[in-house]
């Protein structure tokens, strides 16, 4: 009976460990897409330049 009571508190402690490393992994993903957002800005002014050519 003593062993059964000791195993119960140990089980919830194990899943808590993998949950901690998962939290810092999530914020790392949004940091990557922030880099390609910079080159997207200069592409926007290039689009209206093509429209002017078609109007001529």
Structure description:
With 56 residues, the protein is an all-alpha fold. The chain has one helix spanning 2-55. The model has no long low-confidence stretch (mean pLDDT 58).
Summed up, what is this model?
The protein contains 1 helix and no strands.
Secondary structure: elements and pairs:
Elements: H1 2-55
Core attributes:
single chain; 56 residues; mainly alpha; 1 helix; rod-shaped
Shape: rod-shaped
Q: Measured on Cα atoms, how large is the radius of gyration?
A: 27 Å
Measured distance between first and last alpha carbons = 89 Å
Mean pLDDT: 58
Major beta sheet, specifics?
A: none
Structural class by secondary-structure content: mainly alpha
Number of strands: 0
Helix content: over 70%
Name the quaternary structure. single chain
Strand content: under 5%
Low-confidence blocks of residues:
none
Order of helices and strands: H
Tally of DSSP helical segments: 1
